[in-house]
Amino acid sequence: MTPQQPAAPVKTSGQRPRILLIGANGQVGWELRRTLAGLGEVIAASIEGGYGPIIDLLDHGLLARLVAEARPDAVVNAAAYTAVDKAETDRDVARRINADAVGELGRLLAERGIPIIHYSTDFVFPGTGKRPYTEEDVAAPLNVYGETKLGGELALLDSGAPSLIFRTSWVYGARGANFLLTMLRLLREKDELRIVDDQVGSPTWSRMLAELTALVLYRVLRGDLDLKQVGGLYHLTGSGEVSWFGFAQAILERAELNCRLIPIPSTDYPAPARRPAYSVLDNRKFQETFGLHMPDWRVSLDQCLELIPC
Hints:
The protein has helices spanning 27-35, 60-70, 91-112, 144-159, 179-189, 206-222, 227-230, 244-255, 284-290, 297-305; strands at 18-22, 41-45, 74-77, 116-121, 163-168, 171-172, 192-196, 200-201, 204-205, 232-235, 242-243, 260-264. The chain has a domain at 18-176 and 203-239 and 281-295: NAD(P)-binding Rossmann-like Domain (Rossmann fold, 3-Layer(aba) Sandwich). The chain is built from ten helices and twelve strands.
């Protein structure tokens, strides 16, 4: 990296910055409520409400009112349409949430000069390579979910809002619907499980993702990072790579459960949406820019399992 002058601090409306968190009840959003709390006042918006304002990304008027009323100094958008298979037949809703709403949010924030951190996915890539994908590699999604998430990336970048887009993958955690919790339940219930072994990626713990997000946002709010210089796309996943079968094996061993795992090809487990065979992301740009890195996925898995009664 070349040296640069630090940016001016974000001008806050009070002593503590106001951070608008969208998607506060999701896997990552739930963790962000905790990690962002040390940075300032968190306005935790979700479609369910409960912890803060209700937000529906299909309603652009409601989104505009939320931004106007919250008067945030920064926004973190952890909301998305994530039902990969359902998106194949629910294309319009997936596009409106993952692409159109993100572009509208970017436009609203660009007008006010408010920085935003947004999450995207490894599914923007086709998975035909054999090395980790970099931010410079051409995106070519295989499914509607990936297409709409890529559309959101492009819309946010085109909006002119000061933005950081973190592409991540295979997110799991101690709550929500994810591979880890599904495996723990099935490993207790079944004597034998057939797990896909020809899709390779990087498991990413939602808590670690939220913690690194908070560390970066802290520097943005302080003015140590100028998003005119370092804004844009970054890959942020657990380090290392593994197949779904290998991930399941690691869960089985660490949870000390008894179940026979059988590796199978994707063709034996047909799904409406095609998945990339290899979607490992290269995190070097994030590491070099921010001086931070994700631990190996095995380390994060061990730490996460300490929070879950097995």
